[in-house]
TrEMBL record, chain B:
The lineage of its organism: Bacteria, Bacillati, Bacillota, Bacilli, Bacillales. This is Iron complex transport system permease protein. PANTHER family: FERRIC ENTEROBACTIN TRANSPORT SYSTEM PERMEASE PROTEIN (PTHR30472), IRON(3+)-HYDROXAMATE IMPORT SYSTEM PERMEASE PROTEIN FHUB (PTHR30472:SF58). GO terms for molecular function: transmembrane transporter activity. GO terms for cellular component: plasma membrane. Keywords: Cell membrane, Membrane, Transmembrane, Transmembrane helix, Transport.
Amino acid sequence: MGSSTMVGAERKKKTKGIVVLIVLGLLIITAFIISMNTGFTKLSPLEVLRTLFGSGTPKQELILFEFRLPRIVIAVLIGAGLALSGCILQGVSRNALADPGILGINAGAGLMVMLFVSFFPTTTAAPIFLLPILALIGASFAAFLIYILSYKKGEGILPTRMLLTGIGIAAGISSAMIVLTLRLSPEKYQFVATWLAGSIWGSNWKFVWALLPFILVLVPLVLAKARVLNVLNLGDQTASGLGAPVERERMILLAAAAVLAGACVSVSGGIGFVGLIGPHLARRLVGPKHQFLLPASALVGSLLVLVADTLGRVILQPSEIPAGILVAILGAPYFLYLLSRTK
Amino acid sequence: MNLNSSSTQSNEESPTAKIHTRPWAATLILTGGILLLALGMALSISFGAADIQLGVVWQAVFNFNPDLTPHQIIWEIRLPRILGGAMVGACFAVAGAIMQGMTRNPLADSGLLGLNAGAGFALAICFAFFPGLPYMYIIMYSFLGAGLGVLLVYGFGAASRSGLTPLRLVLAGAAVSAMLSALSEGIALYFRIGQDLAFWTAGGVAGTKWSQLEVMFPWVLAALIVGMIISRSITLLSLGEEIAVGLGQRTGVIKLVGLIVVLILAGTAVSVVGAVGFVGLIIPHLTRKLVGVDYRWIIPCSAVMGSLLLVFSDLAARMINPPYETPIGALVALIGVPFFLYLARKERRTL
C-alpha cells in the first residue's frame, strides 16, 4: 500500500470522472440533435442543418427557431438547474431525500398558479405569460418563509431544521391547494394539473432570457464551492475544525439552491424529481467528490429533462405528455437498477 | 459514501448518550389522551346536521333503541365514521413512527414505502378503466396497490448483496413512489379523471361503514400488537444498525416484520381515507419530543395522539362550513403544521 498506488487510484478516479463528463456531454448533444428533428412535423437532420445556417423555408425556420430551439434550451437549463439545486441540498443537509420539492418551492409556485387560475375567468393568452412571474413570486415566498422560520440567532440555519420546516410549509401549502382544487371547474383543473405535472409547453425565447441569467450566475458560483461542499459533508465539527466558516457557507449554498430551484420551477412547473434523482445518478457514476459530482449532476439533469421532453412530444401524438411525468417514469427504473446493482 | 452520514450523525451521539425516556409523560399522554379521545368522540357524535344531546349519545351507545331516529343516526352514520377516523389516525401515526425508527430518517413516513403512491396508482387505474366500480372493490384494489408499492420498494431495496440498509430503503421508496405517482398522474391527465381522484382522496372518513370497520379492525389490532412486540427492537434499530446487531438483534427479521406491520396499518388506512399522510410524519415527531426515544412508549402514545388528531380534525371539518365538509387532509395540515413548525424550530439533532 505505497503512496504511489494511492496517487494512481486518485488519478484513475479523476480520469473516470472526466470520461463520464465527456460522455454525458456527448449524449446531451446527440439528444439535442434528435430533439430538433422530432415533433409533430418531422425535419430531417439535413433540413435542420440547412435551416440552422439560414437557408431553410420560412416554415422550417419558424418550427425550429420559434418552437423547438427555445424549448430544447429551456429543457437543458432547467434540468441542470434543478439537479444542481438538489445536489447542493443533499450535500448541505447530508440527507439523501433532500430535493428542491422538499423546500416547499414547488408547492409555493403551484399555489400561486392555482390561485391565479381560479380567480381569472378564462385562461386567455395575455395572463399565461404572467404565470412564470407569479410562480417565481410564490416560489420565493415559500423559500423566504422557510428561511426565516428555520433561522435562529447564533445557530443560523441547521439543515435538519430547514428540511423539517420545508416539509411543514409544503404540507400546509398543499392542503390549501387541495381545498382550491375541489372548487375549480374541470377545464381549469386540467390546466393546473398539467402545469403541476411539469411541462415545458409554450416556451419561447423570453423564458430563455429570463432563466439564463440565474443559471449563468449561479452555476459557476456553485461549481466554485465544490470544495466547501466536500468539507461540509464531513459534518459540522470536522468542517469547522478544517477552518470552513460553516455558517456563512451554508447560508450562501442554501440560498443558491433555493434561487436556482425557484427560477427553474417557475418556468417548468413541478419537475421536482430531477432534483432528487439527478444527483443520485451522478453519484453512482462519478462518486461523492463534488468537483465531479456537481457538473455530473447538472449534465445528468439536463439529459433527463431533454430526453423526457422529446419523448413526451412523440409518444402520444398529437397530445403531449408532461416532461415531469416522463422524467420519473424513465429515471426511476434506471435509478432502481443502479441501486440494486452497486455495492 | 457521504450520504450515509445522515445516519452517522446520530451515531456520533447515541453510543454515549443514554436513552432519553419519560415514562411519566407517556403515562400522562396515554391516560389523558384516551379520556380526551372519548370526550372528542362523544362531541363529534353529537355534532352534525341533526343536533343530538350528549345524553342521547350515551344512551344510544350503551342502551340502543332501534325505534328512535337519533339512535339510528348515531349508530349507522356517526359512530362508524368516528371510530374509523380514530382507527385511521392511530394506523398512520404508528406506521410513521415505525418507519422513522427503522430508517432513522426524520423525513420518513409510510408514504415512503410506496404505499400511498401504490394505492393512488391502483385508484387511478380503477377510475380510468373500470368506472363505477363498487366501493368495497375500490378499497380492495387500492390495498393491493399499496401492497404492490411495498413489494417493489422492498424488492429493489433488498436486491443487492449488502441487503436492506436504511439509506437503500429510503431511496428505493422515493424512486418507486415517484414512478408510480408519475404513472397515475399520466393516467389522470390522459383520461381527465384528476379531479375525481382528488375528490376521492379528499373525501376523508365520511363514508366509513360498519362492514369496513369489521374487516379492518382485526388486522389493525393484530398489527398494533405486533408493533408493540417489536418496539424494543425498533428502539435498538433506531440507535444504529451496528449497535442493534451488537446487542444481538436479528435486524433483517425485525425490518421485515416492521415493514409488514407498516403495510397492514398504513395500507388499510390509505385505502379507506386516502393519503392523510401528514399524520404519519408529525405525530411520531411530536410524540418523540414528549416521551423520549423509547419506542415502547412512542408506539402506544403515537396511536393515541394520531387518533386524537384525526377525530378532532374530522369534527372541525364538519363544523367549519356546514353542511359542506372541508377535506380532512387540509385540516390535519392546518392543525398539524404550526405544531410541526414549532417542533422543527426546536430541532437540533436528527432523531
